[in-house]
Design goal:
The complex is a heterodimer.
Chain A (H helix, E strand, L loop, with lengths): L1 H16 L1 H28 L5 H31 L1 H6 L5 H29 L10 H24 L7 H14 L12 H9 L1 H14 L6 H24 L4
Chain B lengths: L7 E12 L2 E12 L3 E5 L6 H8 L7 E6 L8 H5 L2 E4 L11 H11 L4 H14 L15 H12 L6 E5 L7 H18 L2 E5 L3 H7 L2 E6 L2 E6 L1 H8 L4 H9 L10 H13 L1
Parallel strand pairs in B: 3-7, 3-8, 5-6, 6-7
Antiparallel strand pairs in B: 1-2, 1-4, 8-9
Helix pairs in contact in B: 3-4, 3-5, 8-9
Classes of the chains: A mainly alpha, B alpha/beta.
Chain lengths: ~250, ~270
């Protein structure tokens, strides 16, 4: 247990010590929020969708969690590059524990970033329904954080170096974000896109946060919770397996 | 020669590792006795680090067998990992943590009892003269300081087998002496087996009980330094080494990880 704790603690210390990184990772969500929120807001309202900021904010929170979580998972490659990975790989602790510890740490960091963005959203005009819904939204944020940290770790475990990084960005991370219902409602989409959004884990995370904070839901909050919980367990099993197979 | 089974703590038979067409380790066999200081010597790119990686569960062999403290490192990885500690050739510290935090992190992963943790960390950081820098981030350290910290970290827990891949590279003679004295002491007092590589032949001659010389992935001679000097009719281990491996300068060969990478890339094409 102590091993999981120290891996977790390490991720948090690294996060806390890189304040420029914290700030810069808040810049992107803020930009999206302002540019899209105020830019598309009037059109969205004219089309009868209501207040766009109310719709967008949960998506931007999910985006922040997604990016931070994926990056902290992929950080495994950095650790490999800088040698620290070896230190953890030969330790007399099962690699599953190492993987779980570092993923919990990464997920906690991603969750905290999401929390900061939630606060920012409220500062620019987002109004959550009622305070009772907040714990549920936080749960969804943490599930997104857990899933994508483990997902990032799983991918990084199969890579030898940083060369694949742009590929991950453009072919995994960006599609996950744009095809999740974070920016636009999923109703009335072409069939192909509907299928993709249904297969996208983030769709259920975004929907869960939105359902908790604004009461508007596409899949239903029960489905969101069930899907997110099940796939998080699965990805942790898969991630631990791949992590335990790493050779250096 | 005493060759009782229980005396052998590392037993390597016909071990091989190939990266594509490149044979890094070619069918080597050797035994290391319990409590021995075993020097594994060879020029750059001879296969030393690849062998150590196979012994320490980081790489799976292509062929042959390893028994490490009775376990097979490619099968019972966790059990094998409980048996050894290692100081790597290249850095494996976390730059974003302080020296003390790196030591503490290691003690937790290696299950060093809480009562002795603080004392041992203090003792070792003083030994490598880093105690007054203990709360500095490692990224502010010079190369030599990182090396010393790495050494100190490798000695926090007292494993049955300690692997040292060029432990004293780049250190001044004073520090080297301190460190070897401490290792020797652990070896005597706790019966810890030490398996090390080095390019300093005088060090190997002074501290080792047994030596294996590897070149081009093959073991070319084994024995203690007295024996190696005798068969080559030389006066120092350095001369014996040169006589056995030749005088030509080796290109710094690509490390095994580079081999692994280029091989994987090649396979994908």
């Amino acid at each position: 247990m102590e091993a999981i704790y120290i891996m977790w603690l390490r991720q948090l210390k690294r996060f806390w010590r890189s304040k420029p990184r914290i700030l810069s990772s808040l810049a992107q969500p803020l930009l999206f929020l302002i540019a899209l929120g105020f830019g598309f807001g009037p059109i969205y309202t004219k089309a009868g969708g209501g207040n766009y900021m109310q719709f967008l904010a949960p998506g931007i929170i999910a985006m922040t969690v997604l990016f931070t979580a994926m990056f902290s998972g992929i950080e495994v490659i950095w650790d490999r590059e800088f040698g620290f990975l070896k230190e953890t790989l030969v330790a007399p602790v099962s690699r599953a524990k190492i993987m779980i510890g570092r993923s919990l740490g990464g997920a906690t960091v991603a969750f905290l970033q999401g929390l900061l963005v939630l606060i920012i959203c409220m500062l620019v005009g987002f109004e959550p329904l009622k305070t009772i819904a907040l714990p549920m939204a936080l749960l969804f944020m943490f599930l997104i954080a857990l899933f994508f940290t483990a997902f990032g770790t799983a991918i990084a475990s199969m890579l030898q170096d940083m060369q694949a990084f742009p590929l991950i960005m453009n072919f995994i991370l960006m599609p996950l974000f744009f095809l999740s219902g974070a920016l636009f409602p999923l109703d009335g989409m072409p069939k192909a896109i509907t299928i993709v959004t249904k297969l996208n884990p983030l769709s259920y995370g975004v929907d869960g946060i939105r359902a908790s904070l604004t009461g508007v839901s596409h899949f239903g909050i029960g489905v969101d919770l069930l899907v997110m919980s099940v796939i998080t367990v699965i990805i942790f099993a898969l991630g631990s397996y791949l992590f335990s197979k790493i050779q250096i | 020669m005493d060759n009782k089974k229980e005396d052998i703590i590392i037993d390597v038979e016909n071990l091989s590792k190939k990266f594509g067409d490149f044979i890094a380790v070619n069918n080597i066999s050797f035994k290391v006795k319990h409590g021995e200081m075993f020097a594994f010597l060879g020029p750059n790119g001879a296969g030393k680090t690849t062998t150590i990686k196979m012994l320490t569960t980081l790489l799976n062999p292509t062929g042959g067998s390893i028994r490490l403290n009775g376990f097979d490192p490619s099968e019972s990885k966790d059990k094998a990992r409980h048996s050894f500690g290692i100081v790597f050739q290249d850095p494996s510290l976390d730059d974003e943590l302080t020296a003390y935090e790196n030591m503490e992190f290691h003690s937790v992963l290696y299950n060093v009892p809480k009562e002795v943790r603080k004392k041992r960390i203090q003792y070792l950081l003083k030994l490598v003269e880093l105690w007054d820098r203990k709360d500095n981030l490692v990224k502010t350290f010079s190369g030599g300081m990182k090396r010393r910290l790495e050494m100190a970290r490798g000695l926090i827990h007292h494993p049955r087998i300690l692997f040292l891949d060029e432990p004293t590279l780049g250190l001044d003679p004073q520090t080297r002496n301190h460190i070897w004295k401490y290792i020797k002491q652990l070896n005597r007092k706790e019966g810890m087996t030490v398996f090390f590589t080095t390019h300093y032949m005088d060090e190997a001659e002074r501290v080792s009980d047994n030596i294996a010389i590897i070149d081009h992935g093959k073991i070319i001679k084994q024995g203690n330094s007295k024996y190696l000097k005798k068969i080559t009719r030389t006066k120092s281990l350095e001369d014996a080494f040169l006589k056995l491996t030749g005088h030509s300068i080796r290109e710094e060969d690509a490390s095994s990880i580079d081999m692994l990478r280029s091989h994987r890339r090649w396979r994908h094409h």
